Amino acid sequence: MRRGLPRWLVALVAAVYVFLHLPILVLVVFSFNASKFSVEWTGFSLEWYRRLLERDDILHGLRASLIVGVAATLISTLLGTFIALGLARHKFRGRRVLEALLYVPIVTPEIVTGISLLAFFQWTFRWLGWHLGLHTVILAHVSFSIAYVAIVVAARLRTFDASLEEAAMDLGATEWRAFRRVTLPAISPGFIAAGLLALTISFDDYVITSLVAGVDSTTLPMVIYAMARRGANPSINAISALIVVIFGALILISERLREA
Questions:
Q1: Domain count for the chain
Q2: Smallest Cα–Cα separation from 205: which of 104, 32, 64?
């Protein structure tokens, strides 16, 4: 007979989850507050969501974030999947070192990554005559998203039975056809989940983006931070609530796909 968890452990876990998610719940609730101030509830209203469409800075930041997020996700998902395939299928000297290096962008503090990328861009662009802009933000996001994609796809490849691909080639399929018809469908939940994770991380980033962005490449997190610095604004609650709900759903979908 299986015994249930101790009550004290259940209470502790519940308390931790409340501590983690209660501030987010309060944020979402007060995004519907009719008052211009978040300290007291004066009634239900959708006014602050409607006003989001009237703010050019928010719309401009959203457009920039979507461009950066989609571009960085597509590039990092493609490159990260190739890296995972190369590391999983080939044995070579230094493979373990390369696998360990994938975790460096993840454990490195964002401020260090941002400063190093800024120094690299300034040194490189000085010779090319380029300037910081949306392209540098995309390159920066690709640099740290590739690691997440490669790790997630590599985990999926560990559960893939390589003998299925070998059987397809024994039956007459070319190596590319076997990969496209057997391997790719099998690992597709992994790279789709990795792509959703990369999109979430890219859209959410502020520290690195603020260091490598140009004058006209302000993303949505940078706009929100600037609004918060100027004081309490109910529109911040509304746009933050939308981000939490949308990307929270993407994370849940990513986890379902990763475990599929």
A1: 1
A2: 64
Q: How many residues does the chain have?
A: 260
247's enclosing H/E stretch is helix 234-259
Residue 5: inside a domain, yes or no? no
pLDDT tens digits along 13-63: 899 989 988 888 888 888 888 777 666 777 788 888 888 888 888 889 889
Considering only 33-37, 140-144, 147-151, which range has the smallest mean pLDDT? Answer: 33-37
Q: Is residue 169 part of a domain?
A: yes
- Give the residue carrying structure tokens 């949505």: 220
Higher-scoring residue by pLDDT: 163, 86: 86
3-class DSSP assignment, residue 33 = strand
| CATH code for the domain in which residue 111 is found | 1.10.3720.10
Q: Is residue 12 part of a domain?
A: no
Which two three-digit tokens encode residue 70? 């989609």
Indicate whether 26 belongs to any domain: no
Q: For residue 33, list its beta bridge partners.
A: 44
